[in-house]
Amino acid sequence: MPMRDLSAGPRVLLRRLRELMAEPLEPQERLDRIVRQIASNMVAEVCSVYVLRSDGVLELYATEGLNKEAVHTSQLKMGQGLVGTIAASAQPLNLSDAQAHPAFRYLPETGEEIYHSFLGVPILRAGRTLGVLVVQNKASRNYREDEVEALETTAMVIAEMIATGELKKITRPGLELDLTRAITIDADAYNEGIGLGHVVLHEPRIVVTNLLNEDAEKEVTRLAEALGSLRISIDDMLSRREVSQEGEHREVLETYRMFAHDQGWVRRMEEAIHNGLTAEAAVEKVQSDTKARMMRLTDSYLRERMHDFDDLANRLLRQLTGFSGRAFDEGFPVDAIILARAMGAAELLDYPRASLRGLVLEDGAVTSHVVIVARAMGIPVVGQAAGVVALAENGDPIIIDGDDGQIHLRPVLDLQKAYEEKVRLRARRQEQFRALRDVEPVTKDGKRISLQMNAGLLVDLPQLAESGADGIGLFRTELQFMIASTMPKLEEQEGFYRNVLKQAAGRPVTFRTLDIGGDKVVSYFRAQEEENPALGWRAIRLSLDRPGLLRTQLRALLRASAGAELKMMLPMVTEVSEIHAVRELMQKEVQHLSKFGHSLPRKLQFGAMLEVPALMWQLDELMAEVDFVSVGSNDLFQFTMAADRGNARVSDRFDNLGKPFLRILRDIARAGERNKTVVTLCGEMAGKPLSAMALLGVGFRSVSMSPTSIGPVKAMLLGLDIDKLSAELNAALDDIRSPEPIRALLLRFAEANNIPI
Ligand code: PEP
Ligand code: MG
User: Fold this and answer.
1) Is 682 a catalytic site residue?
2) Can you give the CATH number for the domain in which 528 is found?
3) Is there a single domain that holds both residue 337 and residue 198?
4) Catalytic annotation on 369?
5) Rounded CA gap, 504 and 458, in Å?
6) Does 580 have pLDDT greater than 60?
7) Residue 14 confidence (pLDDT)
8) Catalytic residue selected from 198, 274, 369, 408
9) Is the whole model's pTM more than 0.85, yes or no?
10) In contact, 645 and 651? CB cutoff 8 Å
């Protein structure tokens, strides 16, 4: 087979390199011997290694053939000269007449003018360029394809040497290599707070340490077997009907399948094996090459496909290495900051909560459920952090700023100190908020506001006393279902609610019945794939169609609140008739319990969430039907503006403090007054002091938010004269000609009246 003949050279070279890597040599000596070995094996007169420093400069670290004095002296910037071009493009350059290339740059200290042919390849790791490896010859020639491939394979060994930190010892003082470069990424602030800690990649890359093979045929067979299992597993996922329920879109799976059968991909990996790599190193090499090239694409569709390809290659690596869990050499960090492309709420709940210091998402949106859960956990969240996962390694130091939306990867010491100071300042501010805990939430003009908190898990409960909230305005019962692996039984649900009520110690708890469907995925609950899940079979719609499910929950709630008050509400109500239907089921449950001698709740408060705009034209009927209404502003806003709350491209496009939405909220508050029905709001906007101020201005007297927001919102309202604000705000909302955005008016008002927002 010609392939094997051609590969004899690289295989011998790789074997030699492996021996060199194992010898107890000083790093400079090792590198010098590596370049000598490559030069002799490739019959080249020159072989040089350039390493990328954190200041974007490529420095000559070793050479065979060029002037030795140039080592650690010769430098090229990223994009400059042939070497800089290779680094910037992450593509090899194969030239028979290097000096004729427009990017050629003459470095007199190297003495390279006598060499005509030039072959340079990027030194890549996980798609990142760490340096450039070059061979040169005097005679003008074109290097063969297999020689390019061989040099790329060799570059992997050098990448490993750089990645293990071995070259640090020969890096001049004051300089750093790019791998340890401090990076700041501007992203979006999703939940306030500062997180200092260490990176935990949600989908960890598998670090391949066994690079060089003993028997190429054996590795080709291993690769073929792993690919076979991978293809079967993809077909299997595709054939399951609940594909969309697993968070893996059919479209993505189709792309996986296409890549998994791509002959070009398979051929490149086989070539790498024939050149001496193990099957896993071959997967990594081709993944890294492809990624480096695709990272430079500007087309967002293709970049997205790159993610898919990357995921697929990771799956293949997992097949080959049998890796399944999260490996941490020194245990799971006590100050973990999770980095993920995207994540479901249940996955976040799988992490040890006490060790979580923050969450970074490449995608996501501020009102997506994983963010809501993170907020409930009180951890800072930064979203829309493009590319962060590829730049980070497990265990890297990281700071995330949930106030400004910044991420500092491998921060320099000064920055770290500045942030430690900021954390101390925040702690002091928290201290001040805590001091407000027992202060009554009464505005400057004497209006008592009900401040409640949102919860969904038992671990949230201690926050009730700590925050000084009046009660729980929204208890998201679906979280118990989302973290369970099977449907919680009646007894489990009852025990859970009982526990919640016990820990609430007499403060009211508003249980919301199951709000699953849409993006709230419950793995064991099978549903059909839907085109528009947010508008689909979810929440109360699903509960009414599965009365067994709803009745079990109602029974559990009734039993858990025996002798006490039961406060419950329904999510996503669209028509008042849905409330009647639930009341009927409730009646049946009450009868059933009475018949069997169970004691019943002392009082029942029945409410509805206002999340669907259709209810705006049934306000009076609705309020005649329920004891209270709670506005779910996250959903109401998404449906009002036709802007998906989970899609960052559109979720922030419109202002929730703009006229349309505030007018809607005012209408709801007015309907509440008219009907003497308690109206509250439990979406994310209640937790921001500025929007909470607007809510009070349009007539709300009760709001529910994440517990960490209670202090800041209370501080705001203590300084607020609601009547004064309402006068200005209502005038602006009624004035169809006023050009000033309402948000600007609110900011101006807060500043003029010294209100902390
Ligand atoms: C809302 O929609 O505003 C709400 C509080 O419910 P959830 O965020 O759980 O959908
Ligand atoms: Mg909702």
Assistant:
1) yes
2) 3.20.20.60
3) yes
4) yes
5) 10
6) yes
7) 83
8) 369
9) no
10) yes
* Exposure class string for 371-381: b at 16+ Cβ within 10 A, else e: bbbbbbbbbbb
**In terms of residue numbers, what domain contains 83?**
9-180
Q: How many CB atoms lie within 10 A of CB 14?
A: 23
In this prediction, residues 643-671 reach a mean pLDDT of 93
pLDDT tens-digit series, residues 504-550: 999 999 999 999 887 677 767 766 778 888 899 999 999 999 999 99
Q: Over 50: is that where the pLDDT of 127 sits? A: yes
Any idea what the CATH number is for the domain that residue 402 is in? 3.50.30.10
Let me know whether 551 and 603 are in one domain: yes
Domain CATH number, residue 281: 1.10.274.10
Amino acid at residue number 45:
E
Mutate to test the pocket of ligand 1, among 457, 476, 478 (most ligand atoms within 8 A of CB): 476
The answer on 407 and 451 residing in a single domain is no
Instruction: Starting from the CA of residue 371, give the closest ligand.
Output: 1
Q: Please give the pLDDT value at position 487.
A: 87
Q: Which ligand is nearest to the CA of 454?
A: 1
For ligand 1, whether the C-beta of 635 sits within 6 Å is yes
- For residues 373 and 139, the model is more confident at 139
Residues with CB under 5 A from ligand 2 (ion): 611, 632, 635
Q: Is 476 in the pocket of ligand 1 (CB under 6 A)?
A: yes
DSSP secondary structure, 52-80, as one string: EBTTSEEEEEEEESS-GGGTTT-EEETTS
Residue bearing the CA closest to ligand 1, atom 4: 632
Section 663-682 average pLDDT: 98
Residues 513 and 564 in one domain: yes
Q: 383 CB under 6 A from ligand 1?
A: no
Q: What CATH number is associated with residue 111?
A: 3.30.450.40
Residues 242 and 162 in one domain: no
Positions of E strands within 622-751: 628-631, 678-681, 702-705
Q: What pLDDT does 2 receive?
A: 36
- Does the pLDDT value for residue 386 go beyond 80? yes
Does 468 have pLDDT greater than 60? yes
**According to the model, what pLDDT value does residue 299 have?**
65
List, for residues 212-224, the tens digit of each pLDDT value. Answer: 888 999 999 999 9
Structural domain includes residue 353: yes
**Are residues 146 and 16 located together in one domain of the fold?**
yes
Scan for tokens 């040497």, then name that residue: 161
**What is the spatial distance between Cα 57 and Cα 83, in angstroms, rounded to a whole number?**
11
